[in-house]
Specification:
alpha+beta, elongated, Alpha-Beta Plaits, 5-stranded antiparallel beta sheet, 6 helices
Amino acid sequence: MPLTRDQKSDQVGWFENVLNDNEVVVVMKNAGMTVAQVTDLRNKMREAGGGVKVVKNRLAKIAIGDRPGSDVKQYFSGPTFVAYSEDPVTAPKVIVKWAKDNEKLEVLEILGGLMGETALDAAGIDSLSKMPSREEVLSQISGSLTAPWTNISGAIGAPAANIAGCLKTMTEKEDA
């Protein structure tokens, strides 16, 4: 059943919001995925904080328009769908992992994507998937910031412990 003009307008608006609200959009070719496989991929993406949706190519190209990174339009041909996430590495990580776990099926082909205003090819998406997530980077920074304080408190406490040890040894010698 063809979409009405209002439905098409809603889809274009939805995809414009996805492009504006998310750091990364991954474009994939659906090479005959079953409903169960698509559902599994959607569930994994939802758990990670992203989303997956089938898009109409013509409507996706309209939504992309002439914005920076519009080279990504070339990937919208044939049966395509997109994955998106606010964190720039979440969607690529989930998609690449799912594709590797199901590589025997050969049903998912990563075509490229858009990160901010930069169009990426499949190799770029693969590179993004290998980067640490926002949470991992924040925990590394937090660890780097707290490590000096831990070292300082250890250095401050060490002389006191040494003095206490010396006093204990001296007391034991006097008692003997």
